[in-house]
Specification:
heterotrimer, A alpha+beta (255), B mainly alpha (398), C mainly alpha (154), A: alpha+beta, Alpha-Beta Plaits, 4-stranded mixed sheet, 3-stranded antiparallel sheet, 7 helices, 11 strands, 20% strand, B: 398 residues, two-stranded antiparallel ribbon, 15 helices
Chain lengths: 255, 398, 154
């Protein structure tokens, strides 16, 4: 009799324990329904979708953009960390190409090839392309890099594990590991500024106005007008990164 | 602490041509060379073990448990070089709780877990269950409990249950072969899927990784079998070595062919990155690619192994040759990992210049750390061989 | 005859069930609250990315006090250049009003960053000189007012 009672109470306990555990598992499973599923980007058509234009014809290679970017975003001053930088391409008469970017162009450029050897020469400012199909976003294992609803590729510094896979995946060399924060770092299109209605630091400080950003969804925006009137090209179009950085007057030597 | 940039200024001074300013520092160092090397040993060792079980190669029987335990010891270490190389290692768990579906690295966590929990541990468990139950009865004190816990408290060793051990173990092995292929093919995919890097981005990358993994794993099990026999002062069976050597020979031919195919394809297509990669291969990678990986790790072992297929000389000579070949092949595969991981970062993505790489001795990303992760699996293996000695297993009649 | 389930399988199923349950519970505790709000990332990170301080306050802030310089600037070729391009980040100066908090670069090299002769600069876009030849030994601002470069001093 007593033995029977113990058995039945134990059975009761097991039963309720089983129910409780099923409930816990079920609840957590429901809550984590995005488990293993790659959440799609929300397509909110009311938000702007930002793109960038850089007009190579206007750039005078003063490097103010690179300097302003470092000041604004607390990027270390050492010449190994840049969110934006300027390159000088010099195509020589013999067909060879010389590319330089001393300290990212921040201290200005000294012409390295004598005039008589030069076929042509031009400056190319570089920055994050804020790709629509960004390879860096694609490879981030934890979701610490993402494309914001406005199409700006951002980093979650509190969540980045520092695996550096994104740095490998960016074909434009726009990412680096911040030596003090020990997480990935890159151009945010000055997200903290544009959200307050200010222009990104590099654009604010370009003396010739060779850089511009704007809403690609707004057919009246200046950027859309510019794209309509000019022949523009993106970098490495063969990689299908969906780059939203359009260069005017881009020469074929540039990568 | 203020970061020290001295070494970066040195690299900058030694860089050639033009490289993007953010590319001066190499992102992945020697630890990421160790990682695919170790993972490859796992896959290779497991596939050798499967040959015995699935294809019923009876000669290989003495190496079966050794191969499984080798695979387990290296698998347990496989992720550690990765985690220790993270700059925020305390956040590594995020890769399991919020895996990004489109990231090769994130899904690797699950491939790894599948292989560890469902394949390797289960196969070893089914294989050792009978013995562990018996050992739990024989031993006293704490060891009794260790074995009891390892059996998950299941002490049923009736003939019917034991038959099921064999059946289920066989089933797991069959599942395990594609799993081992996926495990290491996947490591290749982590590199092969980076379209920004032309030295990595080839659909052949998973297959190349897979075959070099098999080559290295087979060599490693062969060496461990020799060393274990030597330590236990047992004569090693030359038939076992001959048999492993034969498999090594065939896999090495395949490996060589596929890697050659990859290079021929690159040379013939000569895409936009070709000139840069040509300079890389002829310059900074010359020693590790042509000498270390090609000559030492592939050509010489191939010639010797081919020779041993036809000429059966003195047993002692053959043993010595197998031992040397095993080491040469491992050097070759390690160099291959080096050429992929380091080589892929030495040239600029502007295809106009090169940076350089110097391994430090100390530090989190130094040689000593890498050596530690390479030696640790042998410690684990020694422990596993003591805990689960294959030579003391309960023999079953079949 | 009852369908036979090998005892190993039930034991393993139990072990795996415990493992998976633990994993799910742990995962539930560890995933940040706003993760997945907009996509596969921490929704709060959008707010974090708006937090950094602004260093360049923008032209509007300068004009609040220095309208007369802007008026002068408008009469000459530097009219489109915003103040902070040369004077550097002004947020500190804007909030303190202290003249020490803003830079006033006057070196020849600083002007040369834009005006040094370079094959990549178009003569039609920007006036260029060779620093090594053009009035060496003198500062640019001794002749040129940076706010009115062609109104020569002397």
């Amino acid at each position: 009799m007593g033995n029977e009672r113990v058995k039945s109470s134990r059975r009761k306990f097991l039963k309720s324990a089983a129910t409780a555990s099923v409930a816990i598992v079920g609840y957590t499973w429901l809550k984590s329904s995005q488990f293993l599923i790659h959440a799609a980007e929300p397509e909110d058509k009311n938000l702007p979708w930002y793109g960038i234009v850089i007009d190579i014809e206007k750039c005078i290679g003063c490097g103010m953009c690179a300097k302003a970017c470092k000041n604004e975003n607390d990027v270390p001053a050492e010449p190994f960390f840049f969110r934006t930088w300027v390159e000088q391409y010099t195509v020589k008469n013999d067909g060879s190409v010389e590319i330089i970017s001393p300290n990212g162009g921040i201290d200005g450029f000294k012409q390295t090839v004598p005039d008589e050897d030069i076929f042509k020469s031009y400056f190319v400012p570089k920055m994050c392309n804020h790709c629509a199909k960004s390879p860096c976003d694609q490879v981030c294992p934890v979701g610490a890099t993402y494309t914001s609803p406005e199409g700006v590729v951002l980093i979650d510094e509190k969540y980045c594990i520092g695996c550096r896979y994104c740095v490998q995946a960016c074909p434009y060399g726009c990412r680096f590991i911040h030596p003090e924060k020990k997480v990935a770092n890159k151009c945010t299109l000055c997200y903290h500024r544009i959200k307050k209605g200010l222009a990104p630091a590099c654009m604010e400080n370009c003396p010739t106005g060779s850089r511009m950003y704007g809403n690609l969804r707004d057919s009246n925006s200046e950027i859309v007008k510019f794209l309509k009137e000019h022949t523009t090209q993106v970098l490495r179009p063969n990689l299908n990164t969906g780059s939203k950085l359009y260069y005017n007057a881009l020469s074929s030597e540039v990568r | 602490m203020e970061p020290n940039y001295q070494h970066l200024y040195e690299i900058l001074a030694n860089s050639q041509g033009y490289i993007f300013p953010n590319e001066i520092d190499l992102q992945w160092g020697i630890l990421i060379v160790v990682y695919p090397f170790v993972t490859g040993l796992v896959a290779g060792a497991f596939i050798l073990a499967s040959l015995e079980r699935v294809f019923k190669d009876k000669i290989l029987k003495p190496t079966y448990q050794i191969a499984l335990l080798t695979a387990l010891s290296f698998l347990l270490v496989a992720t550690l070089p990765l985690i220790s190389h993270l700059s925020q290692p305390q956040r590594a768990y995020e890769i399991m709780i919020t895996p990004h579906g489109s990231s090769a690295m994130a899904i690797f966590g699950f491939v790894y877990l599948w292989y560890l929990m469902v394949v390797l541990l289960l196969e070893i468990w089914f294989d050792y269950r009978h013995s562990m139950v018996v050992w739990a009865d024989e031993k006293k004190g704490i060891m009794k409990w260790v074995y009891r816990i390892l059996t998950l408290g299941l002490s049923d060793i009736s003939p019917r249950t034991l038959t099921w051990d064999r059946k289920l173990g066989y089933f797991i092995t069959v599942v395990g072969i594609p799993s081992a292929f996926i495990l290491h093919g996947y490591v290749g995919f982590i590199f092969g899927s980076i379209k920004a890097n032309p030295w990595w981005s080839t659909p052949l990358m998973p297959i190349i990784f897979l075959f070099s993994a098999m080559v290295s794993g087979i060599s490693m099990v062969m060496l461990i079998y020799m060393v274990v026999s030597y330590i236990r002062t047992k004569t090693m069976d030359i038939n076992v070595l001959d048999s492993i050597g034969k498999y090594l020979f065939f896999v090495l031919i395949l490996d060589f062919t596929i890697e050659g195919l990859d290079q021929i394809h690159r040379i013939y297509e000569a895409e936009e990155s070709f000139e840069t990669i040509k300079l890389l291969v002829e310059g900074k990678l010359y020693l590790t690619l042509f000498i270390s990986q090609g000559l030492i790790g592939t050509i010489i072992p191939l010639i010797v192994l081919a020779f041993l297929q036809f000429y059966k000389g003195k047993i002692k000579l053959r043993k010595t040759l197998y031992f040397i070949i095993g080491i040469l092949v491992l050097i070759g595969v390690y160099s291959m990992r080096w050429n992929v991981v380091i080589g892929g970062q030495l040239f600029s993505k502007s295809f106009s210049g090169f940076t350089s790489f110097k391994v430090g001795l100390i530090g989190l990303d130094g040689t000593l750390m890498a050596a530690f992760w390479l030696i640790l699996p042998f410690g684990i293996l020694a422990f596993l061989l003591w805990l689960l000695p294959p030579w003391k297993m309960v023999q079953e009649e079949e | 005859m009852k369908f036979y389930i090998p005892p190993q399988l039930t034991r393993l199923a139990l072990a795996f069930a415990i493992f998976i349950t633990l994993f799910i519970v742990l995962r539930n505790l560890l995933v940040p609250d706003t993760f997945g709000q907009y996509g596969h990332y921490r929704g709060d990170s959008l707010i974090d990315n708006q937090q950094p301080e602004i260093h360049y306050s923008g032209q509007e802030a300068c004009l609040d006090c220095h309208q007369e310089i802007e008026d002068m600037k408008q009469t000459d070729v530097h009219n489109t250049i915003r103040c902070e391009v040369c004077h550097g980040p002004g947020e500190k100066h804007v909030s303190s009003g202290d003249a020490a908090d803003i830079s006033k670069p006057d070196s020849r090299e600083f002007c040369g960053v834009c005006h040094e002769k370079n094959a990549a600069r178009r003569q039609s876009t920007i006036v260029q000189i060779r620093l090594s030849e053009h009035n060496t030994g003198k500062k640019c601002i001794e002749c040129h007012n940076p706010h009115q470069p062609w109104e020569m001093k002397e």
